[in-house]
Design brief:
By secondary structure, the chain is of the alpha/beta class. It has 15 helices and twelve strands. It has a six-stranded parallel beta sheet, sandwiched between helices. The chain has a four-stranded antiparallel beta sheet with strand order 7-12-9-10.
Length: 340
């Protein structure tokens, strides 16, 4: 960024010098040749730009002044040409335009997720978000990670997630959630504390490398803590001892498969509250399967029976294809939206 400012400053100074030479030439020709101001300006322009005139100026002083003006014009044009080549070679014009476009994109984002850290975990999270078409912003300062993010065309805020300014630039005030995926447990702890102090209601998911770090992150305000090494160990063990279970989990958690989980809140305006799963004929109408219900009091029913009554504020956890889950969302949508 400093190099870009230096290059544009040099180009600006060259343009100012060029205008100054034109004005000096106009005044000089006006005084030496007693020409009118317009004629003097015209002679100054064609001389400085190396266009030349059909006839040389009369008088030794006029010829000498013309030669000086020619040398000044050559020097300034060489300087301007060098600055322009540098701007083009560095891609500063296109780069600045791209940065402004991405900055506007971030400023317009609403209900997005901020991913702090674009290491191995952060890149995987971003890939899943892309697969589901969900908006997100990357906050990163590591040059290698920034280069990878830039190659993939990510919306990036250059900075550390521990810095309140960087979080604000990423749209923390408008975000739906935040993922603290730095390779450093300490950084993730500070990121969680910073985000929670600004947005008490924000959903925060943090990465931890140890159980001790996970405990501290929960105390700092993380809603969920993920331990990649623990998860990886469990996955490897399942692959060895429960291969079919591992294959099923891999299938239903992959964004590439058309089978996924969804959660839907039961709202009063849907007209479904107070009815049982059997009454609503969820499986027959949508094809989706209700596998759990998070009750409004916080309890979790992991094996709801067909006679389980759904109350306002309950969260249904269902599984099915994209089309089946879309039908399920329509079933529990506000009645006005369904009629529309």
């Amino acid at each position: 960024m400093d190099d870009a400012r230096t290059t544009f400053r040099r180009l600006w100074r060259a343009m100012v010098a060029f205008v100054a030479v034109l004005l000096a030439g106009m005044v000089g020709f006006h005084l030496i040749l007693d020409e009118g101001w317009i004629a003097a300006l015209y002679r100054s322009i064609v001389t400085t730009t190396l266009t030349g005139l059909d006839t040389p100026p009369a008088g030794s002083w006029a010829k000498l002044f013309t030669a000086v003006l020619l040398f000044a014009g050559v020097a300034i044009f060489l300087f301007i040409a060098g600055a322009i080549v540098e701007v083009i070679a560095r891609g500063l014009l296109t780069g600045a335009y791209t940065e402004r476009r991405k900055r506007r994109l971030i400023d317009q984002m609403r209900d997005h997720t901020i991913i702090c850290g674009y290491g191995r975990v952060g890149r995987r999270v971003a890939a899943e978000f892309r697969a589901y078409g969900k908006p997100y912003v990357i906050v990163e300062f590591n040059e290698a990670s920034l280069a990878i993010a830039a190659e993939q065309g990510e919306a990036i805020v250059i900075g550390n997630g521990t810095d309140d300014t960087a979080l604000a630039a990423a749209g923390l005030a408008r975000a739906l959630g935040l993922v603290a995926s730095s390779d450093s447990d300490v950084d993730n702890l500070y990121i969680t504390l910073s985000a929670r102090s600004v947005r008490p209601e924000l959903m925060i998911i943090a990465r931890a490398s140890t159980e001790d770090a996970a405990s501290k992150l929960r105390l700092a305000g993380a809603d969920r803590v993920v331990q990649p090494y623990t998860t990886a160990g469990r996955t490897i063990a399942n692959l060895l001892f429960k291969p079919q279970v591992a294959a099923f989990v891999e299938s239903v958690t992959s964004a590439e498969e058309d089978f996924r989980f969804e959660e839907i809140e039961v709202i009063a305006s849907s007209g479904r509250a107070g009815k049982s799963i059997r009454d609503l004929r969820i499986r027959a109408v949508t094809g989706a399967i209700v596998i759990a219900v998070r009750r409004h009091d916080g309890s979790l029913d992991t094996t709801p029976s067909p006679d389980a009554v759904l109350e306002e504020g309950d969260i249904i956890v269902a599984a099915g294809s994209s089309d089946e889950l879309e039908l399920l969302e329509e079933l529990f949508a506000p009645l006005g939206d369904v009629l529309a």
